[in-house]
Amino acid sequence: MGTSDLSKLPLSLDADERRRGSRFEESGPPDRLAQIDRRGRSALLDLVKSPTHEARLAFPGLMKRVFERSGGRLAWAGSVDQQLIGTGSGDFDDILISEFPNREACTQALAERAAWGPEIFVSEIRSLVAAPWSTPLRWIGRIAFRLRALRGGGPPPYAPAKEDRPTFEQVEMGAPEFGPTREQFEALQGADLESRVVMVNFLDFRERARYREQEDDAQTRHAEPIEAGRGVSGREAYGRYGANTIKIVGHLGGRIRWSGFRARRISEGSEPSWTQIALMEYPSRAHFIGMLRDEAYKAGTPHRDAGLERTELFACTSHAGFY
Fold it and tell me: What domain range is 177 assigned to?
């Protein structure tokens, strides 16, 4: 059954399912949306848990119709394959990202969805509202991304992991709290290495960057010396890591799929808020894993470690229609 084939799916719960307590979390009071510029574009990021495979397939199509009636659009939808960095937050099946022309359209869409209640046939929705990239910034970012990739030229400076699988020790990335555990890395290695993957990054930055007092000899490989980062904000430090990584991702044939800022929870529950959410697509998991052991990539990780307060990373597969 395709994502838009809703006719075969019952959009109501039978008595037994209602007794089991399918939980639909409505959006909070209107003041939770006050952070969004009334006239500016807004984005809704939904973390969805579904009771059945059929419901997972049908839900994005249903939400697409609901959001389009409010003037919005479903920008991206994907299945969560694995939580690669962080623990304890990956108890959901799918991620949906929708964009709206203004706050009123977002509020209208949330109200219409809430009116469906449990009849939308999902177990749980945890929602975040964010400010998406502005259209000019989106195009500037994409052009700059491609220009950096063109400057690199040639094939990746390493063999993708499907040809030469690295060990966990070869890809260990700086501070352990900002990298995968051995178990998470081995799970990634055991997945389909040939398929495209979208890495969904949840990012929260320190107010001020925190560089280690003593850096090893790796700092000599930085295009931007470690010392030059002292006194900068966490966002600026992470931006230096990002500038270094974007060159490599573009070189691989990857791309930025979406980015949003000031993501705040609007549903009940424990979902935290984030400074930025960014989606990066790679040609394959093999290319992503290969990048992690590239010395040019590793050279940027001290900037990432200095800038981040906390992070979570999810490996996802785009739904049909969002490749």
Answer: 135-261+268-318
* In a domain? residue 44: yes
Helix (H) or strand (E) holding 281: strand 274-282
3-class state of residue 165 by DSSP = coil
Backbone angles phi, psi at 212, to 5 degrees: -65, 145
Q: Which residue in the block uniquely carries the two structure tokens 């959410």?
A: 277
Concatenate the DSSP letters of all residues of 191-240 into one string: S-TTS-EEEEEEEEE-SS----SS--GGGGG-SS-GGGGTT--HHHHHHH
φ and ψ at residue 27, rounded to 5 degrees: -65, 155
Point out the domain boundary residue: 103, 132, 161. 132
51-98: pLDDT as tens digits: 888 888 888 988 999 999 999 999 999 999 999 998 766 689 999 999
203 with 287, same domain? yes
Looking at residue 272, the DSSP 8-state letter turns out to be: P
Q: What is the largest CA-CA distance in the chain?
A: 65
What is the domain count for the chain?
2
What's the pLDDT tens digit per position in 177-233? Answer: 888 999 999 999 999 999 999 999 999 999 999 987 544 434 434 445 555 556 789
Number of residues that make up the chain: 323
User: Interhelix angle for 103-116 vs 53-69, to 10°?
Assistant: 140
Is the pTM for the entire model greater than 0.85? no
Q: Answer positive or negative: Cα dihedral of 147, 152, 158, 162.
A: positive
Please report, for residues 91, 142, 193, 201, 258, the alpha-carbon distance to residue 135 in angstroms, rounded to integers and kept in the order given: 32, 11, 33, 21, 11
Residues 156 and 227 in one domain: yes
- Burial per residue of 229-266, b for 16 or more beta-carbon CB atoms within 10 angstroms, e otherwise: beebebbbbbebbbebbbbbbbbbebbbbbbbbebbbb
The secondary element (H helix, E strand) that includes residue 94 is strand 94-100
Name the residue type at position 287: H
